[in-house]
Fold this protein.
Amino acid sequence: MHIPPLIKRNTFLFALSQSFTGAGMSMGYGIGPLMVVALTGSASLAGLSVGLFGLSRFVVAYPVGKISDAYGRKPGILLGLMLALVGALALWQSMAVTSTWLLALGMLLFGMGMNAAQQMRVAATDMFPPSMRAQALGYVALGSLAGLLMMPVLIGGGEYLSLHVGGHALGLPWLLLPLLILPGMAVVALVRPDPKQIGMNLSAYYPDYVPPRRAEGAPVRAFSPRELLRDPRMRLAIVSNCAGQGNMAIVMVLTALVLHHHGHSLTAIAFSHLWHSIGMFAFTVPLGKLADRYGREWVMYPGVATTLAGAILVTYTTPFLLITIGTFLVGIGWAAANVASTALIADRYESAERGRAIGVADSFAGGAAVLAAIVTGPLIDYSGLPAAGLTAVLVAAVPLIMRAMTRV
């Protein structure tokens, strides 16, 4: 099916915005733990940043989905980026005035904003028919890969300013981040028309598209999260997404600790994390195409299984190469589960309720990330690194067991 130029343009603009704004979330995960340790002096609280980012996703995903269903995707995305802008400035100030409370508030606001901006994914599903919906998600996610390349520039710029102008090296990158967020907002403002309007009238953009019978003249039913959770396929999609998110949250912490335990340098640890990030974003388009061609479940469940295999390698092997392959597998498995599960939910719901449906899934994923952040530290303290790794494996096994026991 031919993609209209207008849809290509809008998709490019969303991917471009993601490339600007994606650097912020990567930076939050990268230096957030260091900021917590710098202000609290406690390494045991390093996971606070990951937990706050997960909590922010849990809090904001459904409300912003409701806003975007009512008023359009662009208002929801722009609201999120505005929150992220305020949060970034709060994080800069938290290091300047050495305030742990301001740091926590800044992380919560920034995380809420960046997760609200994930309505770009919903916008992508609006603009494409089901046969191309998963690859559309992949194109937008691919923008995050470019954002990763901007993160070292922000951190390096902050270090340069701290040496030549003054200020905290961990705080100044957040002062520079609005230089990317503002262009990201401007790019989103250029999208025309709002993707929700496109989604509600797909046949006007794709003449060969035949809407499903349930969409022809039927009134929009009131969205119900309970109804969503009663559907076995939707439950499995949500649990698969949660498993990928929870597994990855544990392994992201575990990889650095395991490599440090085996005596590897900080440079080697950073290189290993780079491969994890490549796995997360570099293959989203081909994974989306596979999901479109062969079906969502044929990508979603193998994705979850891949995170399980990656967690085993990270936890129970010692060579640097095998650990790095493991963290890469966790990244690509998460991408497969996320793209396929999101597309599966988007297929089930029309544009008028899709923001809330995907918001429910994102809220559960945020809860899984919070839970993973809470349990990882105590598990390592009391039972060692293998216990945390085993937990990551068990988390990934849940949807696979559920699928084996469910008839759908």
